[in-house]
Design brief:
Elements: H1 17-70, H2 89-98
């Protein structure tokens, strides 16, 4: 017995409409997969570029901080956070009652 040819191996003129539709759907899925793979590659390249840029930035910043410290300037400081004022609940109640 001869094997049945797949839709890809047959001539487009001999395919039924259902086979043509299936063939077109398969091709569309293949194209979508290729686009997704291309985008994934581009995303990875951009992430690598971002990491490299961040590393270079931090390196330059450390060099500037070291130079400032060597020249007697202020070293690296963390940003000061405003302190929360503690509230005495009893005092608040007494102030409210007196008013």
């Amino acid at each position: 017995m001869a094997k049945a040819k797949s839709a890809k191996e047959k001539s487009p003129n001999t395919l039924s409409s259902a086979e043509l539709y299936e063939l077109a759907r398969e091709r569309e899925q293949e194209e979508q997969m290729e686009q997704q793979q291309a985008l994934a590659g581009e995303i990875e390249a951009l992430k690598a570029q971002r990491r490299a840029l961040g590393a270079a930035y931090r390196k330059d910043l450390r060099a500037i901080d070291a130079r400032l410290t060597a020249l007697g300037g202020p070293g690296k400081r963390k940003a000061a956070r405003p302190r929360k004022k503690r509230v005495n609940t009893t005092e608040l109640i007494l102030q409210f009652l007196s008013a």
